[in-house]
Design brief:
Blueprint: H1 17-23, E1 27-30, E2 35-39, E3 45-47, E4 57-59, E5 62-63, H2 88-91, E6 92-96, H3 99-106, E7 115-118, H4 128-132, H5 134-142, E8 149-154, H6 163-172, E9 174-180, H7 186-192, H8 199-211, E10 215-223, H9 231-243, E11 249-253, H10 258-271, H11 273-282, H12 291-307, H13 326-331
Parallel strand pairs: 2-6, 4-7, 7-8, 8-9, 9-10, 10-11
Antiparallel strand pairs: 1-2, 3-4, 5-6
Length: 338
């Protein structure tokens, strides 16, 4: 049965584009409060139009993500399909069809040196991947080519299923895997990212990837003011990344669009009530934190990466630097950057 009934009110004007395709999707399976739907695929490879991004092309094997991260910025992508409930992003997962065949044609558009990012708006190795294998089919296609520049972002340990395939890609192309770890506090991670693997398991995946010759690092994003940005906590996380053999650490501060705020701000009010008003004030008129916060975060991460002999993500291949003054880090260890 077609799913037009999921789009209340839209009978008044015809749906077009991705909204029309979503409405025509067919239910193919259900999980824990999750519905899987087909999505006919017109394109797999999307040109990145955002300024100052380090890649030119994006691949997202699914629409929506089951990990249900409270802070997820990508919830807005379901609005393109006229799904206005912010929680639909984690409850209605669209499975793209015919991805490898479409990708084969579209890769002709990629010029030498242009980078392809996989997983910019959905986790490519979320639980749906166990059922449908869309990401696997994409990686199998990419493994047929040489000289590509590929970055992959995930929170999932499921990518180890494809370790041999990733090794093939790494031998033929330049592959970098970013495993997202926002905190090493397992209890906090469970609250923030309810259905994602534990942080220690993600760090173990980083270790196994690098041991197998696949360049992997840790993506600390988003950094949550007052929640995960204490210098002592960031120090613990970057130390854990170094111990896992991570080749680099990359970080970015919280980005909170309105659709994401509808989920995240009630969470803050429930779990961190002392921060609720501050969050409301800071994000009342904009989605980004002030540049001064980003500067403080960048400087902290740089110092900690130097302390633990890690690249800070600002260079693709960065040699370890000398450790900074440990006293300077210790004096601010209990102060949030907020």
């Amino acid at each position: 049965m077609a799913l037009s009934s999921l789009f209340p009110g839209n009978h008044l004007q015809p749906l077009v584009g991705i909204a029309k395709l979503a409405a025509e999707g067919q239910a193919i399976s259900e999980g824990h409060d999750v519905e899987y739907l087909t999505l006919e695929n017109r394109s797999v490879l999307t040109r990145c139009r955002a300024a100052r991004m380090p890649f030119e092309w994006m691949i997202n094997p699914y629409r929506g993500c089951e990990f249900a991260c409270k802070y997820c910025y990508a919830r807005y992508t379901h609005e393109f399909m006229e799904l206005r409930d912010s929680r639909d992003f984690e409850r209605k997962i669209y499975v793209k069809q015919h991805t490898s065949r479409v990708l084969r044609q579209e890769l002709k558009k990629v010029r030498p040196g242009e980078q392809i990012a996989i997983g910019t708006a959905t986790d490519p190795y979320q639980p749906a991947e166990r059922k449908f294998g869309v990401t696997r089919s994409i990686m199998e296609e990419l493994a047929q080519y040489e000289g590509l520049e590929i970055g992959l972002v995930t929170k999932s340990t499921l990518l180890l299923r494809d370790l041999e395939l990733l090794q093939v890609i790494a031998c033929k192309s330049r592959l970098t895997v970013c495993v997202t770890v926002t905190t090493v506090n397992a209890e906090l991670a469970r609250a923030l990212e309810p259905r994602a693997p534990r942080p220690d398991l993600r760090l173990l995946a980083v270790q196994r990837l690098n041991a197998a010759g696949v360049r992997a690092g840790v993506n600390i994003a988003p950094v949550l003011p007052g929640i995960t940005d204490l210098p002592a906590d960031m120090d613990s996380l970057i130390a854990a990344a170094a111990n896992s053999g991570a080749k680099f650490v990359w970080s970015n501060a919280l980005f909170l669009k309105d659709c994401s705020a509808k989920v995240f701000l009630p969470f803050v009010e429930s779990k961190f009530p002392h921060l609720a008003n501050l969050y409301k004030q800071r994000f009342a008129k904009r989605s980004f934190l002030p540049a001064s916060y980003s500067d403080r975060l960048r400087n902290l991460v740089k110092r900690l990466c130097e302390k633990h002999s890690l690249g800070d993500g600002t260079e693709k291949w960065r040699a370890p630097s000398a450790a900074s003054d440990p006293h300077q880090l210790a004096t601010s260890a209990q102060m949030s950057l907020f």
